[in-house]
Task: structure prediction
Amino acid sequence: MKVITLDTSKCVGCRNCELACAFINSKETCERKFSMIRVNHYIEEHAVIPMTCLHCEDPWCMAVCPSGAITRDPETNAVIIQDEKCAGCKMCILACPYGNIHFDAELMVSHKCNLCEGNPRCVGHCISGALNFEEIEDFNERSRKKVDLEISKYMKQTCKTQEVDSNGK
Amino acid sequence: MKAVIIGNGAASLAAIRSFRKYDKKSSITVISKEGGNAYSRVLLPYVLRGKLSYEKLFLPFSDKLDSLGVTYIEDEVLSVDDAESVLKLGKHGDLFYDTLLIASGSKALWPPIKGICQPGIYHLWTINDLNRLQIEFSEKKEVVIIGSGFVSLQAAWAACSRGLKVTLIEIADRLMPLVLDVRGSGLMAEQMSKFGVNVYTSTITEEISKREDGKFFILLRDKENILADFIIVGAGVGANIDFLKDSAIEFARTIPVDNYMLTNVLNVFAAGDVAAGPSVFGDEHVTHALWPTAVEMGKIAGANMAGQNIRYDGSLNMNVTQMFDVTVASMGKFNDADIDDYYVYDAESGKGYCKLCYKDGLIVGICLVGTSEAVSLLGKLRPIIRNRLAVKLPPAKLDAFLNVRFFQK
Result:
């Protein structure tokens, strides 16, 4: 199963992902209001965070939708909203704890990331490698290696200190 | 094991799916009094407005009950014999159960007004009401709406969008007290006036009578009387629990349940509009009669009927809709009596009127008459309110905090 992963330490805040997403969704413009991915800038906190739908395992938006417009695509595993079924009641926007569902004021329906049918444009246009589209297992592997590295660094550090300590005696 | 569910709505469908997750074999029987496929009452005003087509009312899986191994019976439950675990049905005789879920929902009530029960006066609560109102909407010109709850205002919006002349009468001094605070209500009333709706608050309807020309004559106390071609009434709902009269199942206006959706009888659960369950604010028994609460309760009840032991953290009331070109939403506590501090976002935030409410230093609720973008803030606040997390930040910084929080381990 492939998912979009975010490495916030790599994001440079160029907002290319937003432009790419806006274009594929609107078919004609790169205006950011059409984008499903949103890069949030926090100057004081020194943080730049691209946020897009996480396609939760047990999506609350899907459970709560009163018109059954939200389903899971069996091929891409994406949680998708069917325009023609959406009543525009915004219950899903209220349900999403990450703020990743948006409202299309022209069609009066909710909109969200659909993983571009398995070829997410935001990832394709990411210049810094912050966004990746990868097997969840690969991501876990990377996370594990990262943690391993941290631990081994820490171990080295403690061993050295212990050596110094014992020599000093 | 034999599981039986009374009702075929949000709570019931959520319960079926959750039950099947844990138990693929046991039989499930659903009893529906209303009949037909399960549909979404929430969507009736949207169909009336013409935003959704009729067939979109029906819930996913409502026509696939067979595939979920559900036996569907259209019948009325007359009584419950909880000692023998048997239901008495109108046409189908006795039905035995091992585990029972009462999810029979609620019905719209008639307020005590003289002449309220006559042809031409409707609720907007069932598919039947919708069908009859569709005819009125296309043939008539003037409608009076009595009551200003969520459904009433959406009915007003539907009538307004379809070019009818709308008058709204509310007995209380403001609109939607369960959804908005005082200022929010005021803004909503202003917004409706802009769309040409006559809004009467603090107005008592004394009597409704039909004139010879077929028009309704509505007598108001201390105000000039008004005329209407037809009338829609939204004056609250009451639980469908008449069949519990002779059973040992405890009930008042609704059925009190514990955190496991269990009633006082060991193998009887209740969920949705009929149930009064725990709230996130520590209340023991609260009935919201809201869609999301019904889904949550149904999910818990279904799992526990299948032998799980899943505890419900309590319900959090939430409402949202778009009408008269604004988004109206609220969550938790927002009325002045329930809070001790609040913050109203300024115009620059682009939210519209958005009030964040505090009690004892914790965020307990929020209400909004504004933009659709602001609704996502409510979504992000839901876990904060639910888990009673203290946020020691000025409210203007809250958005940033909520977005960054997710990445902090």
